[in-house]
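Below is a filled-in request sheet from our internal design queue. Each sheet records the structural input a requester submitted and the sequence that came back. We keep these sheets so that new team members can see what a complete request looks like end to end.

REQUESTER: design group, bay 2
PRIORITY: normal
MODE: inverse folding
CHAIN LENGTH: 392
BACKBONE (tokenized):
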């Protein structure tokens, strides 16, 4: 029993300093970063957990009757705040979820305090507190392991949360079915199992939150570097990179493809007449409509200003011509903010039939020449380049 008690004290010390250093590091990091509510909630949860561990460390001095109800209330508050921070980070936070957690915390606090008052010498309130903890982490575990984006990190965290849930459920079951539990309020072996579960939960919450934050930061950086901020489609750099790779694959497979260059007609007049805000909305409307006409294997990117590019996969002259006409027609009779805002698009197109790997710069030059012809012929039309890419 002495060895078990020593291990518990060591565990509590590790919990305390682990949470303390985490709080200090996060606060130091936030001092140079923009403040966000998600990280603030996470820090608040860690501070509450620090208080909980301090009370557990002083349990022999303060007495169980004082520390237990206070720890129960603090644990519910910490669990609620940490769940909010994790769900906000995962994009799964909503008003309904907030209501669920507030209701769960309130009902759990009321039931646990009533059980503690009515049955102070029974293990029932220990099992009830454990089951309440399970209810707090079931939804984050579900989001991470089943419903989320299913990244390897999220899958691993969902699995670990599942292990913690099983550990806590096992601890609650042992409270009732272990013979010692019927004769003693808190057997050391059950306390050890409980603290191990708490340690795993706190460690998972801390490391998981930090890793998820880092993962999302990298994902955001990748998104900014890959997609055009205004329209949400590929920017020029990303389009060129992906197009070159796709063209190489198409050449190896001797698969035909087509390259289209699109330009919104008289776009400067839209900005001058209605303002740049309306012009941005026209670009967004244009991008959404064009994207809706393309297949999953096609590429669509913004080359700059009102100029866009499309790479049509497995598309010969007949197919690409039909698709280009669909793209031209789909933007006609546009309505922006409930106001008719008609605009048109001119398209230059080039098709590659052979298995030769044609440089993207050549495709751009030929389609740009065809686009220029479309502008010269009156705009709002599709013009095909008849020059052979290979001979160029």
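RETURNED SEQUENCE:
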């Amino acid at each position: 029993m002495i060895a078990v008690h020593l291990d518990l004290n060591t565990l509590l010390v590790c919990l305390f300093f682990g949470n303390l250093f985490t709080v200090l590091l996060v606060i130091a990091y936030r001092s140079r970063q923009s403040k966000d509510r998600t990280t603030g909630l996470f820090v608040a949860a860690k501070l509450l957990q620090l208080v909980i561990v301090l009370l557990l460390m002083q349990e022999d001095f303060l007495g169980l009757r004082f520390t237990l109800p206070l720890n129960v209330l603090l644990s519910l508050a910490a669990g609620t705040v940490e769940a909010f921070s994790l769900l906000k980070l995962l994009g799964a936070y909503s008003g309904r979820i907030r209501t669920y957690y507030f209701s769960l915390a309130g009902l759990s606090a009321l039931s646990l305090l009533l059980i503690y008052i009515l049955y102070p010498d029974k293990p029932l309130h220990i099992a009830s507190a454990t089951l309440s903890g399970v209810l707090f982490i079931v939804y984050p575990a579900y989001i991470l392991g089943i419903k989320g984006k299913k990244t390897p990190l999220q899958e691993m965290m969902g699995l670990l949360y599942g292990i913690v849930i099983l550990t806590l459920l096992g601890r609650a079951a042992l409270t009732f079915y272990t013979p010692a539990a019927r004769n003693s309020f808190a057997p050391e072996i059950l306390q050890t199992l409980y603290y191990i579960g708490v340690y795993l939960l706190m460690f998972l919450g801390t490391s998981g939150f930090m890793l998820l934050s880092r993962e999302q930061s990298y994902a955001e950086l990748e998104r900014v570097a890959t997609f055009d901020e205004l329209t949400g489609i590929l920017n020029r750099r990303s389009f060129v990179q992906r197009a070159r790779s796709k063209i190489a694959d198409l050449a190896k497979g001797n698969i035909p493809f087509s390259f289209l260059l699109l330009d919104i007609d008289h776009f400067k007049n839209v900005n001058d007449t209605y303002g740049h805000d309306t012009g941005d909305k026209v670009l967004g409307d244009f991008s959404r409509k064009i994207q809706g006409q393309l297949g999953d294997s096609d590429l669509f990117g913004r080359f700059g200003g009102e100029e866009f590019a499309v790479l049509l996969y497995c598309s010969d002259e007949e197919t690409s011509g039909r698709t280009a006409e669909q793209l031209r027609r789909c933007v006609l009779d546009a309505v922006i903010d409930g106001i008719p805002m008609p605009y048109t698009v001119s398209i230059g197109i080039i098709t590659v039939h052979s298995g030769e790997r044609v440089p993207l710069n050549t495709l751009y030059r030929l389609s740009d020449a065809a686009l220029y012809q479309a502008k010269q012929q009156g705009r709002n039309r599709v013009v095909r380049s008849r020059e052979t890419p290979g001979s160029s």
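SHEET NOTES:
- Residues 1-6, 181-186 have pLDDT under 50 and may be disordered.
- The radius of gyration is 31 Å.
FILED BY: M.R.
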